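wait is this the right file?? whatever heres the structure
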């Protein structure tokens, strides 16, 4: 992250995540746990999408956020049921109430599964496991800290922290165990064929978390009666050791990527000679996760195997997963650090990482070896202290268990050696022989395609339908109303302008025109008014004769006409003289 332009923002996000994770761990009630649970999800979203200018990173952070929200919905339903039936969120009080049988068994099962849904989302368990591999788009320190050792482990922590709830419901515990083993098996098979170094580790993380979830489902710790049972001890112990060796592997992968500038292990090879610190540290982490004797993973994984005693199907699947884990991790090691370089250009420019990256690998490698020693029964501290509670903490992983587990792990390493170092077994031949199975694993069991076809595409189609309905019907109605309103307004405007205003203005125009003519009759001269009156009288006489049907002969008509002309002439003369006098006065 040294040369990243958003260096400060990265550590701000990381600090917010650490605050959220610590708050989650120290919460003593469900309500505060849920608050910090959501803050952890928020900071994970910010860190996965830290390089948001990359479309793949932007898509990955949205996928992680939305997928985990599905699980958190179930978690929220479980919390509501706890509040309803227990009347409190306090862990101790809830455990006591449920342990006393005050909550109906069916409701205990439902609320326990609801709480577990939160763990399924956060710890990337089946069927919500698809987000974690894509989360590798974030910076490698995020993958190492957030998406291997802490945040994704929060689901395991939640189930372990609320183990009394699951102990009260055998059905819920069985669901937990089934989901755990299915997740672990699916992720391990997918990791067998992947070539992206970080995605291999991501699927490995999912598989190991499934291990822990399975162990918790095979019964756990009853805090109300202070009873420790196999699953609780094995899961929490493996949770602790896994944090060290998986962080080591992710940081080692980051160091390798820093050296060769690619995530594809098929473009690596021979890096042992170039990376004298990273390579040994990475191999130690791989030995630990494979359960090599006396490493941390050896002790904790054997406890998980011991948890399955009495459940033959779980025992077989657990050993099968252990074999696949050893195989795909050492396939990764052999293709990355041994053999001939498959890309000479990248090999020539490869170099050991600086001390700031190399020294943490040394510390983590040390812990990957010795952290698991705290579980040795002879030590009266650490995880071994569970021995000294009132109930036996586990059916002891005896020497036969150690031997079988070691042989399984070594067999996986040996098969990887024969295929990728000695070339005794050709990977290409195996790929061709098991082509359908290879395609199934390579395409991640087609879960992404299944979700795309059954969930995403229908939702997108429904969204497009709603958009069209909104655009064409809702907006069409609104816009159509607006158009009609505009047309009506235009019509009213035209009517108002040409009819109403036209009538008013026309009346005014007529008045003005009449006034322009009649103003000449208003001279202010008495003589003119007398003559006008006489003319009016003559006209009225004529009209009277017409109304009375009196026929006027031509002499009389001529006399009246001459009289009228005379009167008009006299009036005109008076008007002319008056106008002349006015002009003279001016």
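ok assuming it is, sequence goes like this
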């Amino acid at each position: 992250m040294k040369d990243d332009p958003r260096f400060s923002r990265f550590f701000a996000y990381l600090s917010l995540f650490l605050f959220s994770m610590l708050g989650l761990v120290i919460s003593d009630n469900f309500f505060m746990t849920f608050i910090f649970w959501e803050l952890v999800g928020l900071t994970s979203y910010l860190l996965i999408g830290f390089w948001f200018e990359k479309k793949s990173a932007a898509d990955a952070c949205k996928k992680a956020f939305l997928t985990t929200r599905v699980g958190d919905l179930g978690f929220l339903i479980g919390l509501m049921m706890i509040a309803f039936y227990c009347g409190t969120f306090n862990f101790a009080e809830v455990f006591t109430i449920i342990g006393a049988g005050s909550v109906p068994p069916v409701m205990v099962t439902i609320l326990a599964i609801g709480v577990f849904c939160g763990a399924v989302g956060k710890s990337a368990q089946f069927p919500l496991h698809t987000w974690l591999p894509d989360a590798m788009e974030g910076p490698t320190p995020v993958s190492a800290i957030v998406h291997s050792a802490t945040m994704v482990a929060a689901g395991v922590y939640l189930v372990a922290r609320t183990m009394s709830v699951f102990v009260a419901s055998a059905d819920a515990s069985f669901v937990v165990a089934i989901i755990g083993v299915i997740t672990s098996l699916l992720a391990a098979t997918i990791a067998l064929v992947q070539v992206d170094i970080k995605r291999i580790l991501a699927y490995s993380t999912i598989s190991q978390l499934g291990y822990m979830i399975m162990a918790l489902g095979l019964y756990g710790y009853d805090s109300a009666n202070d009873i420790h049972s196999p699953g609780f001890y094995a899961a929490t112990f493996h949770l602790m050791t896994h944090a060290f060796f998986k962080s080591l592997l992710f940081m080692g992968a980051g160091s390798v990527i820093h050296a060769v500038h690619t995530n594809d292990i098929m473009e690596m090879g021979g890096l042992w000679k170039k990376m004298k610190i990273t390579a040994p540290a990475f191999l130690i982490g791989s030995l630990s996760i494979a359960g090599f004797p006396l490493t941390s993973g050896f002790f904790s994984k054997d406890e998980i195997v011991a948890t399955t005693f009495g459940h033959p199907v779980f025992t077989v699947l657990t050993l099968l997963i252990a074999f696949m884990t050893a195989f795909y991790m050492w396939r990764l090691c052999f293709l990355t650090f041994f053999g001939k370089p498959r890309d000479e250009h990248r090999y020539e420019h490869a170099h050991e990482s600086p001390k700031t990256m190399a020294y943490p690998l040394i510390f983590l490698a040390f812990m990957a070896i010795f952290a698991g020693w705290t579980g040795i029964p002879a030590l009266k501290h650490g995880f071994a202290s569970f021995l000294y509670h009132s109930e036996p903490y586990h059916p002891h992983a005896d020497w036969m268990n150690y031997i079988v587990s070691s042989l399984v792990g070594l067999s996986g390493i040996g098969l990887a050696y024969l295929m990728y170092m000695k070339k005794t077994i050709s990977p290409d031949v195996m790929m061709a022989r098991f082509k359908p199975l290879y395609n199934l694993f390579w395409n991640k069991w087609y879960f992404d395609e299944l979700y795309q076809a059954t969930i995403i595409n229908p939702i997108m189609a429904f969204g497009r339908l709603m958009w069209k309905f909104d655009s064409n019907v809702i907006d069409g109605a609104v816009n159509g109303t607006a158009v009609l309103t505009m047309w009506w307004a235009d019509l009213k405007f035209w009517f108002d302008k040409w009819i109403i205003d036209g009538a008013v203005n026309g009346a005014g125009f007529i008045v003005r025109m009449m006034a322009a003519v009649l103003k000449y009759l208003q001279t202010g001269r008495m003589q003119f008014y007398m003559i006008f009156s006489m003319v009016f009288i003559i006209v009225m006489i004529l009209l009277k004769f017409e109304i009375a049907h009196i026929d006027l002969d031509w002499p009389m008509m001529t006399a009246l006409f001459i009289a009228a002309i005379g009167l008009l002439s006299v009036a005109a003369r008076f008007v002319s003289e008056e106008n002349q006098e006015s002009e003279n006065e001016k």
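Confidence is low (pLDDT under 50) at residues 221-228, 386-396. so i think its the right one actually
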